[in-house]
Amino acid sequence: MKPSHDARSWFGQPPGLTILFLTNMWEQFSYFGMRALLVYYMTRQLMLGQAQASFVYGAYTACAYFTPIVGGVVADRWLGKRRAVAIGASIMAAGHFMMAFEPLFYLALATIALGNGLFLPSLPSQINDLYAPGDPRRGWAYNVYYVGINIGGFLAPLICGTLGELYGWHYGFGAAGIGMFAGLAIYLLGQKHLPSERGAAVLAIDPKPLTLGAGNRQLWLVLAAVGLCVTLFRGAYEQVGNTVALWAGSGVDRGLGGFTIPMTWFQSLNPLLVMLLTPPLLELWRRRAEAGRDTAPARRMAQGALMVSLAYILLALVAWQAGEGQAGWLWLALFFLIFTMGELFILPSGLGLFARLAPPRLGATTVAAWYLTIFAGSLGAGLVGALWSRMPHGVYFALLAILAGLAAFLLRLLDPAIRRIDRTWNDK
């Protein structure tokens, strides 16, 4: 039975969304806290070479977004979403604590990635079932959920990173494990606010096979097309932690009244702005929905990709103007403002679209397909980032603007097909 439409919590959403939000926040805290320490731990404590450490880091992050593909199927087919979240969180917490023992390092990484495969697709796929069909709040619930990712990502380097650097790496890893246990405790204590399982076999094999089916073929084709657009978009989006960070270190004058702003501080602007911009953005979308002017998901995603394109056009112009000199840091701050606004339009909307259009008994599997776009997009971003040293910075940022703009154009073309599919599945 679904919660009442009148059940209200943070941002006017059902209480169950708060439970999922907090569970996600602490899981992200543990993930980003461990990740913030990982390369330093390998090179300074385990004394691995930089190339080997980079390979291990890349393999781990890739697996973290690949295992959900299998985990989503397991959750839909055998475990059910609730058990998958609980088991996955428990496995991840164990992996974080295993990081405190050097001989278990590789086994710990594999354990965390394995638990993440069950946890990651099963948690957000429960959001859709909190709402009655046609409830307009469902469209922007994923933006609220997305804030949890950024709160965890914002706090993790400050807490786990500080503990690891100043008091010992194992204290940082231990803090990450405690964060994972906190998320698990919140999830288990908040069960009464969560939706009941729909059509998932629990610890028993469902005799009916899961197939795409002829009736679902158009749905999967549309979702695949959206996924390719998002993969293209992420080739530009993922550069904020890569080539944009390199430019912040060398091409930006970070002086402020005799103080030099640490280049890593600019990376905290993105999650901070997500937290600051989400409440007014949700209020705007709520008013538009009440007035009957709610924006279709594909159009909203296209708008977001276009905003990111404009942000990179700004950097291209600034880099061209600066030439061999340095640009003012305020331009970089303005870039992050426009960039983050675009991110809030496209990424939570894409996750929500995949979850809302998921066929019965395939909720976690469909959400896992969304994380496959992150996996593929991250690999593509690595190839794009390799061009940084081969062209002028202004030209490079213009290339990123073209990638994001092309994604916006293709998403806009997909809007009619997505609307048709959405009308078909919205009342399922």
Describe the fold and architecture.
- This protein has 13 helices and four strands.
- It is an all-alpha fold and 428 residues long.
- The chain has two domains: 8-198, Growth Hormone, Chain: A, CATH 1.20.1250; 212-428, Growth Hormone, Chain: A, CATH 1.20.1250.20.
- The strands form two sheets. Strands 1-4 form a two-stranded parallel ribbon.
- It is globular.
Tag the structure with descriptive keywords.
4 strands; two-stranded parallel ribbon; disordered N terminus; about 0% strand; 13 helices; two-stranded antiparallel sheet; 2 domains; about 425 residues; Growth Hormone, Chain: A; mainly alpha
Number of domains: 2
> Strand-and-helix sequence, N→C?
HHHHHHHHEEEHHEHHH
Q: Which ranges are low-confidence, i.e. pLDDT below 50, for 5 or more consecutive residues?
A: 1-7, 199-214
Biggest sheet statistics: 2 strands, parallel
Shape: globular
The proportion of residues forming helix, as a percent range, comes to over 70%
Any idea of the CATH class of the largest domain?
Mainly Alpha
Termini separation (Å)?
15 Å
Helices and strands: which structural class? mainly alpha
- Please identify which CATH superfamily of the largest domain we are dealing with: MFS general substrate transporter like domains
Q: Tell me the CATH architecture of the largest domain.
A: Up-down Bundle
Strand content: under 5%
Cα-based radius of gyration, to the nearest Å: 21 Å
Instruction: Describe the strand arrangement of the main beta sheet, using strand numbers.
Output: 1-4
- Mean pLDDT rating: 83
The total of beta strands comes to: 4
Structure annotation, total helices: 13
From the 3D structure, determine the CATH topology of the largest domain. Answer: Growth Hormone, Chain: A
